[in-house]
Specification:
alpha/beta; DNA polymerase, domain 1; elongated; TIM Barrel; 10-stranded mixed sheet
Length: 373
Amino acid sequence: MSIPEVNLVFDEPVQRKKVPKHLADYSPQERREVAQGLGLPAFRATQVATHYFSHLADDPQTWSDIPAELRQTIADQLTPKLIELVRSVTCDDGMTRKDLWKLHDGTLVESVLMRYTDRVTVCISSQAGCGMGCPFCATGQAGLTRNLSAGEITEQIVAAARACANGELPGGPVRLSNIVFMGMGEPLANYNAVVRTLHNIIDPAPDGLGISARSVTVSTVGLVNGIEKLTEEGLAVTLAVSLHTPDDELRDSLVPINSRWKIKEVLAAADAYEKRTGRRYSIEYALIRDINDQSWRSDLLGRLLKNRNAHVNLIPLNPTPGSKWTASRREDEAEFVRILEGYGVPVTVRDTRGREIDGACGQLAAAEKVRTD
């Protein structure tokens, strides 16, 4: 099967409409300074943060500790509406829900909320589209529209937390426990907004949601400079590297950023991250039939990882309509696992959720664009 050439996009296209600033775009100190700049006491910012992060309250009329005549004005200034739900689709008896969001400029992004027996995870988008150009990825083939602001990313998470608290998933009210940056976009290509969002997630109330860093995963296709910067942050979130093949020759085509940073450099950066944070990292590997699922590649991957503190997540490819890429045969998947385990490498085959609801990232947004054009 031939692999098409792709063009990488590293620079963000010009953004025509400026994203309104939101409480979630600022650090706690900056929030207080913004409030003062609006002629408000600094403590008003802390009050609003409490309502936003702790109470998940999106109706300012419930902010009883703020004078009634000020609530809407303060809300408009500090928590402007950044995302609007276009539609939701569900599967797995309602335990998986994909939400399509329209941003203030009409841009579409997606998030996926998944309830398991022991946790609830939301998969969020950090960019509209993606500039990394991986040919088997629906988002990558759509190209990059723009980066999301920290407010736009955080709003996806807070909306998911609110849905959990309101009992919108089967099983009744529950607390959102896990966040994965594995939706649309390359998180480390939107570094500052993603790091601000990480603080919004893990900072204790009232400054953030107070979710453990151990429950947050940031995925990257291997932007070594971004991994190095994240290492210095010392946030101890889980790093996930989308490797997809252990050999540079194939990876140059499957993950075109490999033309800038080779596998050896990517793994060295991940090792440094693990050493600094003490957090085992993940290797994401989409199994693609007759492309990267050969036993010799599993053997090479096992030899690469056997002495590293890494865990392999094998992902049966969620094919996109009209694509020649498809998931591996079950027997090839089983052999791939067997070889890795023979090297003592921890490996999990990821639960494939969302196939019935355009599960691969970018599909729902693409379908909505076709529907409305």
